[in-house]
Amino acid sequence: MAVPAPTGAVVRQRRAIDLEELVAWAIRTQKADRDRVSLHAVELAAAVAIRRGRRPTGGFDGSGGWGVDSCVRVAEIGLAGTRVDSGGQIRGVAPRLHPDAEAVMAAIDRAFGNLKGWRRLVLDQARQGGRPCWNLGRQRFVPVKNTAPRGGGRRHVVVSEWESLPPLSTVARRMIARGVGILDSRGRRKFQQAEPGFTYRTMDDGSRQVVVRWSAVELSPSNAEIREAREDYAAWHAGMMRVLGAVVDLPLRDYRVTGFAAPATPWVSRKDS
Q1: Domain around 249
Q2: Same structural domain for residues 160 and 42?
Q3: Is 8 exposed, middle or buried (0-12, 13-18, 19+ CB in 10 A)?
Q4: Which pLDDT belongs to residue 212?
Q5: Nearest in space to 27 (alpha carbons), one of 134, 109, 117, 115
Q6: pTM (two decimals)
């Protein structure tokens, strides 16, 4: 039998929220990941004992209940978020951490355990308030940057090679065949053996070669960069799914998790649409 709410009681309406927004709120706004980071391991144990309403073990007991041990003192100050003796907030400890943010952070810790890489990726993205960038833009050819210490003053890589040219006699026959004269009014050949700005050489068989230069190009973003960006996104999405499993049933005070709407493979969905 359901117990009716007391007359005049305030019914708290929980806000429906997506997991991505909830985690960003807990980490970026509430900075729940910074809570307790300034405490030593022994001090943290004291803080945990205080939160659980139990006395710490070991040398923490004293005639005055908690005693005056510095570890306990720091832990108590950490819980309050500020010093009672008018001091400032402890660096790295959130002064007024929302209980939902604290619960979300605890769920994240449970979800990953020793998987520090996934945990770091999820927290980094939450601090930025976004997702890993999987779309690096359309691939295009760009000049290869010159990274050599002494690149001749060039910003981009220049490639050169010898390219064969027909002998001058062949050029003359082709001109004559087209009815084009090979001599000018002074009896000089209209074509030069070498043009200014080009480097030529004559081979033993009479053929010629000229140096051809061009700027080397490459695809940007490269296939490796695209693959790495997609792998980072996939790892983040998999990590968030682990967080969802740890958060979805939490009895949060002000929020109700509706799910995780971010697509698992947006690059595939985009092609299919």
Answers
A1: 15-136+226-272
A2: no
A3: exposed
A4: 81
A5: 109
A6: 0.60
